[in-house]
Structures are given as structure tokens and as C-alpha cells.
């Protein structure tokens, strides 16, 4: 009985030592590379860039209007009463704060640009995360880091980079999706012809 207990303790200890000596298996991805090669992300990013250009034009127009109002006020100021001057200054101040509010609404930390960007990134990031988890489980990685994130990686050997593996998985999923869409459209075409 004591011998069995002793052997059990020794075997458990040995398995823990072997497990500890294995070392952590680490890999990394470069999300910037993955996103730059993702067709959906590039298209969505292009749409976002177009919206950003529109928003910048909208803000520039407001700034031009503000400048015109200020210039007009400077010319008329000598003809106005002190009460009218105070009123016009208040109007100009309100319009200037509108411009600042619009800039904040469009480009602030919780602005339209950040909201749109998060909406565009979320599906792609979820897809990448799912694939990374599958690869990590399959290849028994203990940690997978994102090289492009805020984590500072002072050195990384290329053989631990699994970005290409993730990209190939994403591209394979896209090809499967495209094939299914072609098959479904072909079926619809055949059903329309036979009716």
C-alpha cells in the first residue's frame, strides 16, 4: 500500500517536472500584415477613407463660413452699437463651438470615425481570432502575441510568425464562401430555367 502511494507520488512528480521542462511554446502574428492582405478589410477601409474625406470637407466648409462671419463682423464692427457687438460676438463664439463640436463628433475618441473603424474591424478581428485559436490548439502554442499591438516585442524570430498560416486559412475560408455562392447562384439559374 505504501509502495503504491510512493510510486504514485513519484510518477506525478516526474510528470510535472517533464511538463515544466517542456517550456512555453510561443508564436506571434502581425495583424497589420493580415489586415493589409484581407480583401474585405481593404474594401471597408476604402469606404471609411471616402467618408473621412467627406467629413473633412464638411468641417472645412464650416471653418470657411466662420472665417467669413468673422471678417464681415470686423468690417461692420465700427458701425454697430455695443449691444449689437456683444450679440454678434456671442453668435461667432457659438458658431466656433459648433465647429469644434462637429470635429469632436467626427474625429474624437468616441467619434464617428472610431465607431466606423471598430465596426469594420470587428468581423475581421473575430475571424482572425478564431483562426489563431484553432492554430494554437492544433500546434499546441501556449501564447500567441500580436506583433503590431501595444505589447513591445524587442526581438522575434521569423520561424515563430504564424501570420502567413492565418492568412492562408482566411483565404481558404473566402474561397469556400465564393464557391458556395457560385453554386447557389447556379442552382437558382437552373431552377429559373426549368420552371
Summarize the amount of helix as a percent range: over 70%
Biggest beta sheet summary: 2 strands, parallel
- The overall pLDDT average reads 81
The count of domains is 1
* Cα separation of the termini: 80 Å
Q: Counting H and I runs of at least 4 residues, what is the number of helices?
A: 6
| Strand line-up across the major sheet | 1-2
User: Low-confidence spans: pLDDT under 50, at least 5 residues?
Assistant: none
Structural class: mainly alpha
Order of helices and strands: HEHHHHEH
Describe this structure in words.
By secondary structure, this protein is mainly α. The protein has one domain (22-190). 77% of the residues lie in helices and 4% in strands. It has helices spanning 2-22, 31-36, 39-76, 82-107, 112-139, 163-194, and strands spanning 26-29, 143-146. It has a two-stranded parallel ribbon. The radius of gyration is 30 Å and the shape is elongated.
Helices and strands in order:
Elements: H1 2-22, E1 26-29, H2 31-36, H3 39-76, H4 82-107, H5 112-139, E2 143-146, H6 163-194
Parallel strand pairs: 1-2
Helix pairs in contact: 3-4, 3-5, 5-6
Keywords:
about 200 residues, mainly alpha, two-stranded parallel sheet, 2 strands, about 75% helix, about 5% strand, elongated
